[in-house]
Amino acid sequence: MTQALLRGGAGVITLTAALLATSVLPAGATAPTRAAPSTVKIADGETKPTYSRADAVSQVVSIETTVDSDRDGERDRVQMRIIRPKETDTAGLKVPTIVEASPYWAGTHDIPMYPVDIDAASARSRSAVQRNLAEVFPGYLDNYYIPRGYAVAHLDSIGSGGSTGCPTSGDRAEQAGARAATDWLTGKAKGFAPDGKEVKSSWSSGNVGMIGQSYNGTLPNMAAATGVPGLKAIVPVAAISSWYDYYRANGGVLAPGGFQGEDLDILAKVVLTRKNPEVCQKVIDEITQSQDRVTGDYSDVWAQRDYVGQARKVKAAVMVIHGLNDWNVKVKNSVQWWNALKQSGVPRKLWLHQASHATPFRWRLEEWLRQTHHWFDRYLYNIKNGIENEPRVDIERAPGQWETAKDWPVPGTRDVPLSLNAGPDGQPGELELRPAKGAEQSLIDAGRTRTAEQLLVNENTADPNRLAYLTQPLTKPVRVNGIPRADLRASLNGRSPYLTALLVDYGTDTRPTGARVDTGVKVCYGESVPGDEGCTTRQAHRTATAPYKIITRGWLDARNRKSPSRTDPIEPGKKYDFRWDFEPTDYVVKPGHRLGVIVLSTDYDYTLRYPAGTKLVLDPGTSKVILPLARGGREALK
Hints:
The chain is of the alpha+beta class. Strand 1 and strand 2 (22-23) form a beta hairpin.
């Protein structure tokens, strides 16, 4: 657990004990001391700084789970490191706990990726891509929440760090490991001190929250999906709700953005940092055999890693956070989780921001602190602060420009079909409200020779490797929010089974790249302690000029046109109806811009890459996309 710095002087912004108060202390100044009572101070609908972070006590406990994933005849144990107010020992104070679970606390291994160029003479395993393992909340959770009467804990996921068991990339065993922390904090699981003696959580109030990004955000989803009593609130950021939708899409083997060639077994090896890792070889070998990188079909191995169907068990209030430009954990993971929670009547909030795989803590600091603090206070301390009555959705419309909504997609959104019509010269085609039949149009798959970005340029001319369909320049803004769908009448003849569709904004003047730039201003939390590990740097959006912006994309393995669970061979050259979803989006196309649909086969950075040459023939007029447009969107396309 990191220590944090309270430092004054030029260029340092310090969050003091008051929640949103920002001040700069004179150089050498120290925070005032205060007597800490045995009950936390509550004012203005929130917990207030009451206890000393510097005097906090620490504890390490190994918690017994209900599973034996390494098959050694003993139940797995997960290690948890806890920091809590000293008054939990000296004054009988009972506090709730905020847990960040992770397989990354002990670091990772470099594991070669699978080759993705099918039948290439030089095909070989790709080098590992290093994951960014820097703490998302450095010095924040403990230094912010301990003074406000919370314990903060780091949990090693099974098979990692100080835990036993084997990492299994999200299956029910790993789910049990994520749940175990809450079970111990509520007195329902056994825990053991480093000396082997059983230890109880006598200081715990029995109320637990979880927070984290990416895998660290997936583990809260996993724990909540078990319905574990005592887990009252979670904040999953850029989190997975179904591992099939992380490594597959509609029957196709598909990469998370930036990790081409990774799969369940590769990730398990990456995070296998427990002692005696060789005991997990057989377990991971079985994952390799069952994950199926040939057909990509949905099977029991994926059902064991799908939490959407378990949403009805969730008892925790869920605050979902996701970047609209996240192509690592794609937006579908949060949107389908959001929809399932809605159907199950779970208290929920949603943030959709303009970055990629990131946490808005970095650039919307004050509002992030206010809402997450009130979220945990409401459900872990039962403080009636009204957070659940505020607008349910926060959307970053443009860098730094936020708006709220009652729900998402926004009320008034309607599905609008747009036909892929032939143009006057065939290609490029036209994207129109009314269908107009025309002669067949075809492309030859570029295979592993061109990326989607390379195929988007020169949209006003024909390109043999893609089909393009564009609207006229818009006279009014058009907001696409929800899940677009593709509905194509087409045939394939060749090796590649993939159909890819891209929704594109042509004429973009600036666009968020997902990158952030250092503004050179430090932000620190907590009390005066040695070092500067508790500091982070405030960051801002960076924009870049571009002639286009890929709004969203979607993929289908044509052999899975009937079901993701079933491969049905296609007859070369025969026309079929192909229907699939794009990734969810929320995007406004500005007046003067054109909305485009690009049809491809291989998507270089995501799909497997077969040799070039597959021919795709499409029926214009019959083929269409269905776009979820906010009120007024259809009229803007007339």
